[in-house]
Amino acid sequence: MKKYALAILLVISQLCSVLSLESTGPAFMWSPHIDMKLEENVNYQTLSSKDLARAVMSKGTWSNIMCKGKSSHQHVDVAVVFVGKELQSSDISGKVIAEASLIHLLKDSFTKSNFSMAYPYVSANVKEGTLENSVLEEFEESCDHKLGVGSIAITDSCSIDDQKVSKLSGMHAVQEFIDLSMEKDTNGLTNLLVICHRGFSSSKNPEGDVFSELMSSLDNSGAKYAVLYVSDPYNPIQNPSNYQIGRFLTEAQSGNASLDSIFLDSIFCDGVCQIKKSLLEALFVTIVLLIILISGLCCMMGIDSPTRFETPQES
Length: 315
Hints:
Blueprint: H1 2-19, E1 24-31, E2 47-48, H2 49-58, H3 63-66, E3 78-84, H4 89-93, H5 100-112, E4 115-123, H6 131-142, E5 149-155, E6 166-168, H7 170-183, E7 190-196, H8 207-221, E8 225-231, H9 240-253, H10 257-265, H11 271-302
Parallel strand pairs: 2-4, 3-7, 3-8, 5-6, 5-7
Antiparallel strand pairs: 1-4, 1-8
Helix pairs in contact: 1-11, 2-6, 5-8, 7-8, 9-10
C-alpha cells in the first residue's frame, strides 16, 4: 500500500507543478550614459515584478538617480519604464520570432550600451496588481519612501494607484514630456516616465514601432536616459464591465448573437487559462480513477482466503 500511496503523491505533485506554471516575459535594462561594469549581464532566475524592481534599484544603480540623499556623478535626465505585452520568454530564445523588429531593436540597444542587464524570466503575479504599479511601489520602498525625482508621468493606459502623477495621452505628449525634461530646470533630479503599450494597441501600431519612436525621441532630444523594458504577456482585464457592454452592443448590431457571445466570452480565458483548465480536469479524472483503483485493491486485500487446503479424504 505504501508504494501505491507514494505513486499517487508523485502524480499529484507533478500535475500541481504543471498547473502552477506562469507566463513569463523578458526584461532588459540599459543606458548609454552610465558607464559601469557588472559581474554578470544576465540573470536567469525567475523573478517577480517586485524582485525585478528591487534588482534594478540595487544592481542597476537606479537608486543613485532616484532616491533622495544619494548622489551620482553619472546623472540621467529621464528614466523610462516601458511595459510591453507582445513578448514572452520563449520568443527570445526560440527559433520562431513573434515580433522580429522589436527583438532586433532591443538587441541593438542592449549590446551597444555601456551599461546593460537582462532578465529573461519575469513573472507577473496577478495578486500584486498591474506590473507597472508593482514596480513603482517597489521603487518607493527601495528608497525608504523617499523617492527623489523631478516629476513622474505615465501614459493614460497605465494603471497606478498614485493619483498625483501626470498622465500623458499618445506619443505626442510623451515627446513633449521628454523635451520639457531637457528645458525645465529640475535641480539635477531625474524625471520618471512610465509607458504602457496597452493604450497604443487600439491604434494598430505594433509594439516595435511604438518603442522605436520612443527611442528616436530620446536620441533626438539629446537627453541622458536609462531604460527598463519589461514585457507582461499576461494582462488581466481591468474593467470586465466594458467588455460586457461591448458584447451587448455587438449582439444588438449583428444577427448571429450566439457566435458573438462565444467569441467575446473566450476573451476572459486566454491560452494559459485554457491549458490550466484542461490540466485541472485531467487532475480530477486522475484522482477519481486512483480512488477507484485503491478501493479495488483494498477490497481484494481484505478477502481472507485460506492459504492451505486440506486434502480430501478417500471414501
